[in-house]
Amino acid sequence: MRKNTNGRRGGQVASSDPRRRYQARHRAMGLCTVCPRPLAKGSIVFCEWHRQKNRLRKRRLRGPILCRRCRKPLAGTGQLRGRRYHRLCLRALRVEREQSPHYRELHASAARAYQVRHATMGLCTQCPRPVVPGKHVCEEHLRYRQDRYQRLKTVNRGPRDFRSNVSRSGPPDRRKAQGSYM
Ligand SMILES: [Zn+2]
Ligand SMILES: [Zn+2]
Ligand SMILES: [Zn+2]
C-alpha cells in the first residue's frame, strides 16, 4: 500500500502521472481503471473483463499451488490467502511433529534449559515471575501446584494416580507474566 492515498477514491488527485489521473477519473465515474467499461459488481478497480483477465494472469504467474504435505493442489481460497497446506494436512502435520521423538527431545531439552536459566536468575521455573523465597516457583505456580495436589488427593485419595481424569484447569499462563520470553 502506498502511503499517499488520501482522496484517491474521491478522484481529486492532482497527480503528474497521466495514468494515475486516468485511473482517478475513471474511479470517480465508476468505470474500470484500465478501460471505459463500467466496474464489475463488487470491484472498485476493474470491469468484468479486466477482472477476469487479471485473475487469469495471476494464476498463470503462480501456477497451481500444491499442498506441501500431500502434494495435491490447494483450492482457490486457500491459494488466495497464501496457504501452503490443506487445513487438515496442517493439523495432521502438527500432531505428527509433536509426537515425533525428535520434537519431544527438543522440547524437553528446551524446557530443561529454560528451568536452569530461570533458576540461576531467581525466577520461577515455569514463567518469568520472581520466585517465592525458598521455592523454585512463583506465587501463582505455587498456588496452582497446591490446588492441584489438593484436588488429586480428594479425587483419587492420593497423588499417585495423577493420570486419571481429574478436572483440569490449566496452569497460570506464562505469557501473561511480564517480561515473558521463550
Ligand atoms: Zn476494463
Ligand atoms: Zn494436503
Ligand atoms: Zn510461575
| Major beta-sheet overview | none
Low-confidence stretches are: 1-11
Overall geometry: elongated
- Could you tell me how far the N terminus lies from the C terminus, measured between alpha carbons in angstroms? 33 Å
Radius of gyration: 29 Å
How many strand segments?
A: 0
Strand content: under 5%
Bound molecules: zinc ion
The count of helical stretches stands at: 6
* Arithmetic mean of pLDDT: 80
Order of helices and strands: HHHHHH
- What proportion of the residues is helical, as a percent range? 40-55%
Which structural class fits the helix and strand makeup? mainly alpha
Please describe what this structure looks like.
With 182 residues, the chain is mainly alpha-helical. Among the domains are: 31-90, no CATH class; 126-163, no CATH class. It is built from 6 helices and no strands. The longest helix has 21 residues, at 101-121. The two termini are 33 Å apart. Mean pLDDT is 80; it is low at 1-11. One zinc ion binds at residues 124, 126-127, 129, 137-138, 140-141.
